[in-house]
Amino acid sequence: MVKKAGLMFAGQGSQYVGMGADLYEKSDAAREIIDLADSKLGWSVSDVCFNGPEEKLTSSNVCQPAIYTVSAACLRTVLERFTIEPIICGGLSLGEFSAASAAGVFSFEDGLELVQKRGELMEKACRDTEGAMAAVLKAERETVEKVCKDNDVDVANYNCPGQIVISGEKEKIETALQALKQAGVSKTVPLEVDGAFHSRLMQPAADKFGEILAETEFSEPQCELVQNYAGNAVSDPGSIRNNFQKQVSGSVRWEECVRTMLNRNIDCLIEIGPGKVLSGFMKRIDRKFPVYNVEKADDLETLEEVFQAD
């Protein structure tokens, strides 16, 4: 039976040393993609993914093409083994590029070039500024937005009910966290990141990335594509391109993206690529909806058992 699925792709922060290694050994489709990335990038993404070091894998200029490559390898392995009809695709931040490639907006190779340049630009923006990010838990959206406005910082991510991420200059984030505490918000978590992603501090990167995006050919998606900046499905290639640029310094409306996906005629959501971050968010968005992960060879066996049982 053909499974109608929504495909989700995680973003930066989901990386870990060893990701993609077992799929590379066991899947011809995965090996082909990773070898292709090695040849296109001019450095061995496979070596960094499989062996680290962790510090190198964490840098935006390395991390972004690495996650994109492993996600594509996972997707090819899934499509090689299962009869799945992707109905709608989406990804968080960097993961949106994996989703767009899966939807046929651009080729794997074009997407790889984009994320490599995006990572380099964002890495430079991190070095040029002193930014910080923090997760705000169990707070009202209006409270967080007001504190951000009052303290001159930005909302980076609306991830799920009970989790919003704020981003901006380090000192201003510290002041905002104190203001949140005074407003009755009891739990905030500073994030271990290189800079202030999805904030105005990334605007120089967004401006330059827009010039690069203009040189890439975009096609209409072959299945629906949700985008972070819009928080909804977008089909016009020009709008998709513009949203990719705006996303670098704008808010990620992931919860809205997921609710759009759940509003389609799909049997399940499949999180493809390293980590289980998006599946974790789903527990707060809709705990009952079927969600599966594929990041390792063992996950394919689990998915097969589930599909056969259905």
Question: Could you give the topology of this structure?
Answer:
Blueprint: E1 3-9, H1 21-26, H2 28-41, H3 45-51, H4 54-58, H5 60-81, E2 84-91, H6 95-102, H7 108-128, E3 131-137, H8 141-150, E4 154-160, E5 163-169, H9 170-182, E6 187-190, H10 203-213, E7 224-227, E8 232-233, H11 237-249, H12 254-262, E9 268-272, H13 277-285, E10 291-294, H14 297-309
Parallel strand pairs: 1-2, 1-9, 2-7, 9-10
Antiparallel strand pairs: 3-5, 3-6, 4-5, 7-8
General description of the model:
The protein is of the alpha/beta class and 310 residues long. The protein has 2 domains: 3-127 and 200-309, Malonyl-Coenzyme A Acyl Carrier Protein, domain 2 (3-Layer(aba) Sandwich); 130-190, Alpha-Beta Plaits (2-Layer Sandwich). The protein is built from 14 helices and 10 strands. The chain has a 6-stranded mixed β-sheet, with helices on both faces. The chain has a 4-stranded antiparallel β-sheet with strand order 4-5-3-6. Helix 2 (28-41) packs antiparallel against helix 5, helix 5 (60-81) packs parallel to helix 6 and helix 5 (60-81) runs antiparallel to helix 7. The protein is globular. The termini are close together. The model has no long low-confidence stretch (mean pLDDT 96).
